[in-house]
């Protein structure tokens, strides 16, 4: 019954992040024999994944003199000494690693590309045989998990035709909104059934990811939970449940007034805390059907 | 199912906020950098183009500098030319060397290949030799097998020949039987008409008899009137006659013949056989002149000459009543003559080889043995062959082991004696290894338990018929049978055996001692048969090949 809010989904889908990619100085010395290498400036889709842009980025660097003959699976990225997890959406990586800026990080986002010394202790190794298969498998397993959280089974996903399942990934990797959402709409609206739980992960910088079963409605109270309800329950010390201050002011005012408070950031914006969690899940989930919410204190 | 909190018609503030913040975000993150990035990338591309151009120019420059230096180094055009020539020479020498290397390499390669080929050839030769050996051995074995098989084929051919002969015999027999059947039918018709006549005659006779009876009755009535005139003597006489008839046969006594009593030449050709009738009154000889001559056994005169055979007569036999004499002929038939009339009574045809022996049985049958490897049993009442026994070897002689001829013994060309059951036609016993030459005659002893055989191995043997063991061997240095159909005889008392030799001597052995009791010399050629008169005494008859029949007696 609740339709997809296309204004919001389009806004989220088209979100692009300006990125400055520099080569690691050690790699530059060994691979480019000390030649001066300029940084590469480019946009990355917030909903995309790093392995999907690796090929074009590598081409640019090779063209400018990096003697890289290895496999794309050996390439990895780093932000301020933190290796970037390729299985996180790029938007999430940015939001989480710049969460101390509370949504106003310096741009473009400056990350470092590495061609050697893959940190196998910190990152999952990408299968070198097929550079795309591993991210694809990872993405599909996330979608399956989301379906399982919603319905307690993955029947809905598995009943999709092979073509539909392919379209999900192809739509994402070629950034084709219609191809992706034609299939995804069925998943996120859950065929107009209220899901058991919401696929939700809460991220805090330098802390383990929090994932708990989150029901969208309270049967007893017969009311929909808001983001505040959920966060208040999951992180009571950060979002005290007693504190009830719905803001009715504009976005700028909210940011100022919330300066000392914790905020929930999703897709690079602060999500109003009174937003119903069900609507949020249906319209603001990442393509993997999860709400990856970063908390900024 | 439905969430109770539906979106209110007025857009909630959080929704507006989200949209606005997304727009803000895009402005801040995307729009602010879009132009900048485009410009930067354009510059970067240009820069890289320029850099590549620069590097190529640098290379060109370096080459130019090098060329200039080289030109400077070599100075004049002459030296340049000399240099060029030298270079060319070096190049050509290098090429030459390369080629030589190549040739060397090829040669080495070829050498290796040849070595390999040689090894392969050696291996092949070895394997071929091995193969050759196995083939030779297999050829040898095949050859031996071939020889064996050929031998087998020869044997089979022989068997086939025998079987063909038998088949021919059967066919002939069949034809004859058909003919005989026709004859019999005709005879039957004749007999039926005869029977009618006889019955009529019998009725007439009966009537006559009745008339005579009446006459007799009348005579008796008359006689009774003149009763009590003569005493009953005649009855005693008749009783004495009956006693005489039933008295045991007088014991036949024999004594050794001492000299020739009579010599007769009556045949035109070689004599093959001699026989005495069971009653001792008739002597018969058969000859290659196709005739049988009957003599009075006492007077020694020819009584009859029986003809009808188309070839020489090989053996003779009388029936028990001495009214029939049978001759077996080389014309494959058996002839039976009536002694009284001298007329041919039966001609038994069916054998497809010379018939060497035939005997009458008590049951009015004839058993004949032939060189066609069969023994045939003929029923004289019907006049045709009732069964055929296949003996696998030519039969030289046969004798009955009992009166009705149900068991017989036959002597064969293959040195063996065979005992047959003529009712079933089955072989009762085959006596092998007794003689080492053809069996010329087999004779039953008067005691009916010993079979006396004569063989071309120059011995006579006595075989006990209950054990089939040889119980006596009779021989002499000078005794040598002169022909395959030599017939020996027992004396009527069974104490002596008489036979003749190729040199004309007649030998008389004592059965008890096994020694020769007497050698009679009168014949000039090989003796073909000797018979002892069934009436005993010293009357012995012998015949030789050269047409002479000798009557022996106690004295000349």
UniProtKB/TrEMBL annotation, chain A:
Spell out the InterPro entries in the cross-references: Atg5, ATG5_HBR, Atg5_HR, ATG5_UblA, Atg5_UblA_dom_sf, ATG5_UblB
GO BP annotations listed: autophagy of mitochondrion; cellular response to nitrogen starvation; piecemeal microautophagy of the nucleus
A single Gene Ontology CC term: autophagosome
PANTHER family, per the entry: AUTOPHAGY PROTEIN 5 (PTHR13040:SF2)
Residue ranges of every copy of the Autophagy protein ATG5 UblA domain listed in the record:
12-115
Which organism does this sequence originate in?
Answer: Spizellomyces punctatus (strain DAOM BR117)
The family line of this record is: Belongs to the ATG5 family.
Signal sequence segment: none
Keywords for the protein's UniProt record, in alphabetical order = Autophagy, Isopeptide bond, Membrane, Transport, Ubl conjugation
Q: Name one Pfam family in it.
A: ATG5_UblA
Q: What does this protein do?
A: Involved in cytoplasm to vacuole transport (Cvt) and autophagic vesicle formation.
Residue ranges of every copy of the Autophagy protein ATG5 alpha-helical bundle region domain listed in the record? 133-189
Q: How does it assemble?
A: Conjugated with ATG12.
Q: Which residues form the Autophagy protein ATG5 UblB domain?
A: 197-295
UniProt topology in membrane: Peripheral membrane protein
Where it mainly occurs, coarsely classed, is membrane
| Name this protein carries in UniProt | Autophagy protein 5
Matching entries from Gene3D superfamilies are given as: 3.10.20.620, Autophagy protein Apg5, helix rich domain (1.10.246.190), Phosphatidylinositol 3-kinase Catalytic Subunit, Chain A, domain 1 (3.10.20.90)
- Localization in the cell: Preautophagosomal structure membrane
From TrEMBL, chain B:
The segments labelled Disordered in the record are 230-251
Instruction: Give this protein's Gene Ontology molecular function annotations.
Output: protein-membrane adaptor activity
Domain of life from the UniProt record? Eukaryota
Q: Where are the WD repeats?
A: 264-305, 306-347, 348-388, 404-430, 432-473, 489-519, 520-556
**Keyword terms, alphabetized:** Coiled coil, Repeat, WD repeat
The annotated regions of Polar residues compositional bias extend over 230-249
In terms of InterPro entries, this protein maps to: ATG16, Autophagy-rel_prot_16_dom, WD40/YVTN_repeat-like_dom_sf, WD40_PAC1, WD40_repeat_CS, WD40_repeat_dom_sf, WD40_rpt
Q: Spell out the protein name for this chain.
A: Autophagy-related protein 16 domain-containing protein
């Amino acid at each position: 019954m609740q339709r997809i809010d296309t204004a919001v989904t389009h806004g989220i889908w088209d979100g692009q992040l300006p990125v400055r990619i520099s080569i690691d100085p050690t790699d530059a010395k060994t691979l480019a024999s000390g030649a001066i290498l300029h940084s590469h400036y480019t946009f990355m889709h917030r909903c995309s994944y790093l392995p999907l842009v690796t090929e074009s980025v590598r081409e640019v660097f090779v063209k400018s003199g990096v003697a890289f003959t290895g496999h794309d699976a050996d390439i990895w990225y780093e932000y301020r000494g933190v290796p970037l997890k390729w299985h996180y959406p790029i938007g999430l990586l940015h939001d989480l690693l710049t969460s101390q800026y509370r949504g106003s990080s310096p741009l473009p986002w400056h990350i470092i590309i590495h061609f050697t010394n893959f940190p196998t202790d910190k990152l999952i190794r990408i299968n070198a045989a097929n550079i795309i298969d591993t991210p694809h498998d990872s993405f599909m397993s996330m979608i399956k998990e989301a379906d399982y959280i919603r319905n307690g089974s993955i029947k809905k996903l598995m009943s999709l035709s092979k073509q539909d399942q392919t379209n999900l990934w192809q739509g994402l990797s070629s950034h084709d909104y219609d191809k992706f959402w034609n299939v995804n709409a069925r998943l996120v609206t859950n065929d107009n059934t209220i899901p058991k739980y919401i696929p939700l992960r809460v991220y805090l910088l330098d802390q383990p990811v929090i994932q708990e079963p989150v029901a969208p409605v309270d049967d007893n109270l017969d009311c929909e939970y808001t983001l505040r309800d959920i966060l208040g329950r999951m992180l009571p010390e950060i979002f005290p449940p007693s504190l009830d201050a719905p803001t009715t002011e504009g976005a700028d005012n909210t940011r100022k007034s919330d300066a000392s408070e914790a905020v929930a950031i999703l897709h690079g914006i602060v999500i109003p805390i009174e937003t119903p969690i069900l609507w949020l899940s249906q319209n603001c989930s990442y393509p993997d059907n999860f709400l990856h919410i970063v908390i900024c204190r | 199912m439905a969430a109770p909190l539906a979106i209110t018609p007025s857009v909630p503030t959080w929704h507006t906020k989200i949209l606005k913040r997304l727009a803000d975000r895009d402005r801040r993150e995307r729009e602010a950098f879009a132009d900048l990035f485009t410009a930067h990338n354009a510059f970067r591309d240009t820069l890289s183009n320029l850099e590549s151009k620069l590097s190529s120019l640098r290379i060109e420059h370096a080459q130019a500098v090098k060329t200039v230096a080289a030109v400077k180094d070599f100075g004049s055009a002459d030296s340049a030319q000399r240099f060029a020539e030298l270079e060319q020479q070096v190049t050509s020498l290098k090429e030459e060397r390369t080629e030589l290397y190549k040739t060397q390499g090829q040669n080495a390669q070829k050498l290796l290949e040849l070595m390999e080929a040689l090894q392969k050839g050696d291996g092949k030769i070895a394997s071929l030799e091995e193969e050759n050996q196995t083939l030779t051995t297999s050829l040898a074995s095949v050859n031996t097998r071939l020889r064996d098989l050929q031998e087998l084929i020869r044997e089979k051919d022989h068997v086939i020949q025998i079987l063909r002969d038998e088949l021919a015999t059967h066919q002939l027999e069949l034809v004859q039987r058909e003919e005989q059947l026709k004859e019999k039918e005709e005879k039957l018709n004749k007999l039926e008409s005869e029977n009618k006549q006889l019955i009529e005659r019998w009725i007439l006779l009966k009537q006559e008899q009745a008339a005579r009876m009446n006459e007799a009755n009348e005579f008796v009535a008359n006689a009774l009137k003149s009763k009590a005139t003569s005493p009953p003597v005649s009855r005693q006489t008749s009783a004495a006659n009956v006693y005489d008839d039933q008295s045991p046969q007088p014991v036949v006594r024999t004594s050794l013949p001492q000299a020739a009593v009579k010599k007769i030449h009556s045949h035109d050709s070689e004599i093959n056989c001699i026989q005495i009738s069971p009653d001792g009154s008739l002597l018969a000889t058969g000859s290659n002149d196709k005739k049988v001559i009957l003599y009075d056994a006492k007077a020694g005169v020819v009584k009859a000459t029986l003809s009808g055979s188309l070839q020489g007569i090989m053996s003779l036999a009388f029936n028990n009543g001495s009214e029939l004499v049978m001759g077996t002929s080389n014309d494959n038939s058996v002839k039976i003559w009536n002694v009284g009339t001298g007329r041919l009574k039966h001609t038994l045809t069916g054998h497809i080889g010379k018939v060497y022996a035939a005997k009458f049985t008590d049951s009015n049958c004839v058993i004949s043995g032939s060189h066609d490897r069969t023994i045939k049993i003929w029923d004289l009442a019907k006049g045709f062959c009732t069964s055929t026994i296949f003996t696998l070897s030519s039969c030289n002689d046969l004798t009955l082991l009992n009166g009705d001829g149900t068991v017989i013994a036959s002597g064969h060309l293959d040195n063996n004696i065979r005992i047959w059951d003529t009712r079933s036609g089955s072989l009762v016993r085959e006596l092998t290894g007794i003689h080492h030459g053809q069996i010329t005659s087999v004779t039953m002893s008067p005691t009916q338990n010993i079979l006396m055989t004569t063989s071309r191995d120059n011995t006579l043997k006595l075989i006990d018929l209950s054990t089939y063991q040889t119980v006596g061997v009779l021989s002499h240095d000078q005794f040598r049978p002169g022909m395959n159909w030599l017939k020996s005889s027992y004396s009527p008392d069974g104490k002596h055996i008489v036979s003749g030799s190729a040199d004309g001597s007649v030998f008389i052995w004592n059965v008890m001692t096994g020694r020769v009791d007497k050698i009679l010399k009168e014949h000039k050629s090989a003796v073909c048969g000797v018979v002892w008169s069934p009436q005993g005494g010293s009357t012995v008859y012998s015949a030789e090949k050269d047409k002479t029949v000798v009557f022996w007696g106690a004295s000349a």
